[in-house]
Design brief:
- The complex is a heterodimer.
- Chain A is of the alpha/beta class.
- Chain A is built from 10 helices and 10 strands.
- In chain A, the strands form 2 sheets. A 6-stranded mixed sheet of chain A has the order 6-7-8-3-9-10, sandwiched between helices.
- In chain A, a hairpin with a 2-residue loop joins strand 1 (3-12) and strand 2 (15-25).
- The mean pLDDT of chain A is 90.
- By secondary structure, chain B is an all-alpha fold.
- Chain B is globular.
- The model of chain B has no long low-confidence stretch (mean pLDDT 93).
- The chains are: A alpha/beta, B mainly alpha.
- At the A-B interface, helix 2 and strand 6 of A face helix 5 of B.
């Protein structure tokens, strides 16, 4: 098991977001975590990379309990994890090349020419060859997300975490991003965790789908299994039928 | 809730929030001290921050100092005429600029220019997840963002204030010559009369503390920004208000401790 969240509790003030959430992410697979807006999907992802610490429970990544690591060990662990943010989170004042090369500059024994080469390679992988000297403000939303993906893969991480990678994109750009996520899994052999509420994307890109509902895991299985489930909550969500969710609650 | 208890509840919540803020500020301060070791992260940004915090603040500081010097000379003359020899105009302009108005007015003006800028910049980075992105790329955001700004404030504020003091005194001198019919020897006699080198050191110590205050308060509110554009606006305003208040408290503190 490469990533495992065990019985995670997290509250912000009076608001309990995660209430005993557990999920297992198998090595080499892409797992989608689905759930309604505000259900705690992004909070879950931030726990995996140590941006948030659980109030209770354990987060295991590569055999390390992230929730108990000190800052230096967390930074070490993050070198194996790429994070693609919902709105890309590119650094506005830097060029695309500088953005993509940020992670590489924190690595030892990587020369400037190697960084340049790696940046060009990553941008080519996301179909943005030649964009090195542009600034984030000059790019469209889809292009920014692709730069975010290039930045995440630049350090050749073992895991890539995607926070709603297709939200707010048109259908064609969505398909392009989905294609890229699948290519990253195949070509780079990375383990992926994708937060989404876009079921078409979830079916297309994932080997396993987990549903987060009211702070706990409601379901985990393959795309085929989730399509066939009788659970009214899961069915109501994936088919977009609020009446089923209301009946269940 | 019982209506009569609402004011008590509001005061209690406010007190809790204030204590929380002090605790968070303490943590950020400790993290910044620890981050001083990470020279590879803050070192490359120090020069550019010194330019932004210091060099780019010179015009506004000099503008304020010029008019302060003019007004000081005119008010001193108005107060002294017929009672005190006019060369005391030089004394008052020099002492007041160096000990008080140079550092305080520059500090207050820069809490608006520098502090607001830092709070808005870091606040925007917070709400657009750029600070989270830095962390996921194994950058310590305190070393990368806070340390170079606070060091730049500590180094550059005294320099800007020394320049402002000089320009303020020059403006007061020029005003004395042009509008008050004083001679240069008269003005300089007054200026030298109670001048002590310690006054300049005091002015610089005070300005360094204001520089640290303005930049660290800006960083603090930026770091703890929540929400979107509105949150950035709130952080920016709070940063200016809180930094200005701390400057005035520090001003009294330094006067009470260093001028006795």
């Amino acid at each position: 098991m490469s990533i495992e969240l065990v019985d995670i509790y997290k509250a912000f003030g009076d608001k309990e977001v995660l209430k005993g959430f557990s999920v297992s992410i198998e090595d080499g697979q892409t797992t989608a975590i689905i759930g309604a807006s505000g259900s705690g999907k992004s909070v879950t992802l931030k726990h995996i990379v140590g941006l948030l610490r659980p109030d209770r429970g354990d987060v295991w990544v590569d055999g390390e309990n992230v929730s108990r690591l000190d800052q230096a060990s967390i930074f070490q662990l993050r070198r194996n994890v790429g994070f693609v943010f919902q709105f890309a989170a590119l650094f506005d004042s830097m060029t695309i090349a500088e953005n993509v090369g940020m992670g590489l500059r924190r690595m030892e024994d990587v020369s400037e020419s190697e960084i340049e080469e790696r940046v060009a390679d990553c941008l080519a992988r996301v179909n943005l060859a030649g964009y090195q000297d542009r600034y984030p403000a000059e790019l469209s939303g889809g292009q920014r997300k692709r730069v975010g993906l290039a930045r995440a893969i630049a350090t050749e991480p073992k895991y890539i975490l995607y926070d709603e990678p297709t939200t707010g994109l048109d259908p064609v750009t969505k398909a392009v991003i989905d294609e890229l996520i699948m290519r990253m899994a195949d070509e780079l052999d990375v383990t992926g965790v994708v937060i989404t509420h876009d079921m078409d994307s979830a079916y297309r890109i994932s080997d396993s789908i987990a549903m987060l509902y009211e702070g706990r895991k409601r379901f985990q299985g393959t795309p085929d299994e989730i399509r066939k489930t009788d659970d009214p909550v899961v069915k109501g969500f994936i088919e977009g039928r609020p009446e089923l969710l209301e009946e269940a609650s | 809730m019982n209506k009569t208890l609402e004011p008590v509840h509001a005061v209690g919540s406010g007190a809790i929030r204030s204590v929380e803020a002090v605790g968070k500020a303490g943590y950020l301060g400790l993290d910044a001290l620890k981050a001083l070791r990470k020279v590879d992260l803050w070192g490359p940004h120090l020069a550019s921050q010194m330019a932004r915090v210091g060099v780019e603040s010179v015009p506004i500081a000099l503008f304020i100092a010029t008019f302060t010097g003019i007004v000081l000379a005119l008010q001193a003359s108005y107060t002294f005429t017929g009672a005190v020899p006019l060369y005391f105009v030089g004394t008052l302009v020099g002492k007041t600029m160096i000990l008080e108005l140079g550092p305080v007015l520059t500090g207050l003006a820069l809490s608006g220019r520098v502090g607001a800028n830092i709070a808005a910049e870091i606040g925007t980075m917070r709400v657009t997840e750029q600070i989270d992105a830095l962390e996921t790329l194994a950058y310590d955001p305190v070393a990368y963002l806070v340390v170079p700004r606070v060091l730049a404030g500590a180094i550059m504020f005294p320099m800007v204030v020394v320049l402002a003091n000089a320009i303020g005194i020059l403006a007061g001198w020029s005003t004395s010559l042009i509008l008050l019919d004083m001679s240069s020897p008269e003005f300089l006699k007054g200026l030298r009369l109670f001048f002590e080198a310690w006054d300049v050191q005091y002015s610089m110590i005070k300005s360094a503390s204001f520089g640290i205050t303005v930049t660290s308060v800006g960083c603090f509110f930026g770091f703890h920004t929540t929400g979107g554009a509105e949150g950035v606006g709130i952080s920016t305003t709070r940063s200016v208000v809180v930094a200005s208040m701390i400057i005035l408290v520090l001003d009294a503190f330094w006067a009470a401790t260093l001028l006795q």
